[in-house]
Amino acid sequence: MADRVLRGSRLGAVSYETDRDHDLAPRRLVQYRTDNGEIFDIPFADEAEIPGTWPCKNGMEGKLLEGAAPEEKKGKPPRTHWDMLLERRSEAELEVLLTERLDLLKQRRRGGTA
Predict the structure, then answer these.
(1) Alpha-carbon span 102 to 77, nearest angstrom
(2) Are 33 and 63 in contact (CB under 8 A)?
(3) In the structure, what pLDDT confidence band is assigned to residue 81 with cuts at 50, 70 and 90?
(4) Confidence tier at 111 by pLDDT (50, 70, 90)
(5) Contact 33, 60 (CB under 8 A)
(6) 26 by DSSP, 3-state: which?
(7) Helix, strand or coil, per DSSP, at residue 104
(8) Burial per residue of 39-77, b for 16 or more beta-carbon CB atoms within 10 angstroms, e otherwise
(9) 20 to 30 A Cα–Cα from 97, which one of 14, 32, 70, 112?
């Protein structure tokens, strides 16, 4: 009979514990404003580092209202496929490979049509 109680109860998806005896982590609300003037609040933990911008539900980027925004960390620029290719081969080597491949394509076309 006990197994009938759990049938169809989304076991694992829903917690049956109550929040009565649990203390939540200390939080603070931080306000952001978008360029169109919409203000929205985001809850953060007290010890969390607050970002200077946050995406809004309307798709715009909100800027921090109170306090100074932290300096953005300078990251490495993204590497493109061309950058990674140049790490392995010089442009002269690539030019030789290109001419070889073009010659092979030309031979196939001549061989297929003749």
Answers:
(1) 33
(2) yes
(3) very high
(4) confident
(5) no
(6) coil
(7) helix
(8) eeebeeeeeeebeeebebeeeeebebeeeeeeeeeeeee
(9) 112
Q: Which amino acid is at 12?
A: G
> By C-alpha distance, which of 71, 25, 66, 68 is closest to 48?
25
Beta bridge pairs of residue 42 = 30
Spatial CA neighbour of 45 closest among 66, 24, 69: 24
**Single pTM value for the model:** 0.46
Angle at 106 between CA 103 and CA 111, to 5 degrees: 125
Alpha-carbon distances of 86 from 89, 99, 100, rounded to whole Å:
5, 17, 18
